[in-house]
Structures
1.
Amino acid sequence: MFKSFVIRKYHFVMVLGFLCIAFAAFLFLRNPQILMTTAEPAASAERTIQLVTGEFKTKLDNGKEIEAYRWDPGTIVVRKGENVKLSIYGVNGASHPFIIEGLNIKGEVKKGKETVVQFKADQTGTYRLICTTHPDIAHSGPMIAYINVIE
């Protein structure tokens, strides 16, 4: 005697969904880059953060041109104990001499050049990255970024 097997739409959808989930899990587990990004960085690993200098310009109704400079990103969050490398690329403005308050770091970013500074985030708190050329509104600023060190 001949037996027939009937596949219902519900069963087909369930099997197809299971196969999709299994395939996604296979891809996830096979790709080591994905696994590395989900893990906490090692305490001795160095974290590189990319920054750029930026500029905004506009003209007022009276024809006067105003500009403002900034670091981008303007806020950086790191964990206490991390080894941090700031890679700062000069896009706008000829020169941006800077200090990082509380970390005893000084440097200068020049247009078209990369400046690299390194530090270990030993203390929690907020540290200001200040361009000494643009410290306030009178000097096309304030050009300040904040480095927040958290537990």
Note: Strands lie at 46-59, 65-72, 75-79, 83-89, 95-100, 105-110, 114-120, 125-131, 144-150.
2.
Amino acid sequence: MSDESRTNTGNPTPEELREKVERTRDELGQTVEALAAKADIKEQAKERTAAVKEQVAEKAALVSDQVRDKAGQAVQQVKETVPDPVLAKATQAAAHVREGAGRAGQYAAAATPDPVREKAGRVAAAAQANRTPLIAGGVLLAVVLLVRRSRSGRR
């Protein structure tokens, strides 16, 4: 405030007072908004929940990728170490199991209530989305069972 804008008595002019009041109102409004944001615990909880969900999703994707890689490595190792005739038998056994499972599924579907069928459909969709590890585990199980069977037959 310059001396020219003041009245002869050294007091601020009415215009200067209005401007000061307006600035003070703006500052007060900003302060109230900041305090309200800090006091809004529900919104803070939502923001933290969203951040945690994002972190969990990222970690789940990382773990899922690692599991797929390990399953792929396990399948490759099984293919490299198991003789071809055993793999052929495992493939035949898997086809036989699939066929039997399909028939059993048809019988079960006919006798299952709708809510149970819907939930089973969701589980099946999840299994299809992650089928590489499931297939690797099934092949590994079939190979182990065939090796045990062939060894018990030699005794």
Note: The chain has a mean pLDDT of 81.
3.
Amino acid sequence: MPSVPSSPDLAHLLSHAERRVVQRLAAVLAEEDCTVEEWRVLSIVGDGQGHPMSEIAEHALMPAPSLTKLVDRMVADTLVYRRPDPHDRRRVLLHLTPRGEDLHRRAARRVRADQARLLAETADGGALARLLPRLTAAADARTADARAADAPSAARPV
């Protein structure tokens, strides 16, 4: 049985869980010859709306230069294609090709099934999946409050 961290530190516990969940996800995706990073791109672009690179980078948890290299490979593998944004020609939107749609559909089926099994193993009735977005939002709000408190005040005399 894998070791569970004994530290009550929330960040450590979450990092430990994230590492194990991503390892499990990687194994599931490997069955479709897909990486976690590719899956993250496919999963956001899979809605058919077309997304700018900045939005994909945030979703995929990747810096822009790394994402560009990944997307270049995915374009070469005919999984995705780039098109100018019809509302802002300076932006490029990413879309799935039919081959990318097929991979997304197959991988999504495997990921959903595995995640359902994993969440069932927690026997928490889905509470974890509902609480994590709330935890993220609370951390984001706290970070924004801290940034605002640290920002120089415009009312201060110089």
Note: The first strand starts at residue 51 and ends at 52.
